[in-house]
Amino acid sequence: MSLLAVRDLSVALGKRAVLNGIDLTVESGECVGLIGPNGAGKSTFLKAILGQAPGAGDIRLGDAESRTMSALERARIAAYLPQEREVHWPVSVEVLVGLGRAFGRSAVAAPSAKDQALIEAAMERMAVTGLRHRRATELSGGERARVLIARALAQDTPLLLADEPTAGLDPSHQIALMATFSDLAREGRSVVACLHEISLAARWCDRIVVLNEGRIVADGPPATVLTDELMRTVYGVEIHRADSAQGLVVLPTALSETEGNDRPDGA
Ligand SMILES: Nc1ncnc2c1ncn2[C@@H]1O[C@H](COP(=O)(O)OP(=O)(O)OP(=O)(O)O)[C@@H](O)[C@H]1O
């Protein structure tokens, strides 16, 4: 059974049609890179899956329609890393990561032994164990990002929806995170991650889904999807593409002569 099955999803925000006729099925064991230019609709798509954006169409999470599920039912299937990385409460890192286990239990109850083991494993995976007693409001941007990813991992769900999880991470933590996603997929879980780092998506994802102007314009293995032509038409960039011992290398190198979306030079 697929973990996520989206059929003919359309979302309008205000008068703006943001997503149009999206069909996407994600099976267990897939690490999916959701890519596309700024404003393509990636974040809106993740929010719609979680019932946080209004829309028409079917969204099945596990074996139920997402919009009829309670927040607790959804939280058992999908963990979510939002794009915003703000932390407002000066709680310790350990307590913040522990909130990933707080669904369905009293806020004042101590974590069970199983919860504590999952919290420790998530902190270990994100290399934030040494920060456990620090206040979450007093971390660097990259440290805070890793703590919030650890909170999502502690939720221990079959599906992880992560919005720009690599933003703000240094190269070693970016690679470690993508390797973790790849491991999660090998364990039979699924990850859908919005990514702007095309090189990371090419190297670590089994599948790339490209959103452009609210529509899926490509879906498949990185080597098939990340072509010169796609990168030119969707992003308006030229790429260096090569096969290496570590896998596919795709590096944006220059703006194209032809038009892409919303070119930074306004052309
Ligand atoms: N609350 C809102 N009301 C109206 N339009 C919105 C709202 N939120 C987002 N949008 C618009 O919806 C479109 C898609 O936004 P979204 O945040 O999903 O894009 P994205 O692909 O995640 O972009 P980015 O890569 O910049 O994060 C954009 O044009 C954005 O301006």
UniProtKB/TrEMBL annotation:
GO terms for molecular function: ATP binding; ATP hydrolysis activity. Keywords: ATP-binding, Nucleotide-binding, Transport. Transmembrane segments: none annotated. Residues 4-238 form the ABC transporter domain. InterPro entries: AAA+_ATPase, ABC_transporter-like_ATP-bd, ABC_transporter-like_CS, P-loop_NTPase. It holds the Pfam family ABC_tran. Belongs to the ABC transporter superfamily. PANTHER family: ABC TRANSPORTER ATP-BINDING PROTEIN, HEMIN IMPORT ATP-BINDING PROTEIN HMUV. This is ABC transporter ATP-binding protein. It comes from Oceaniradius stylonematis.
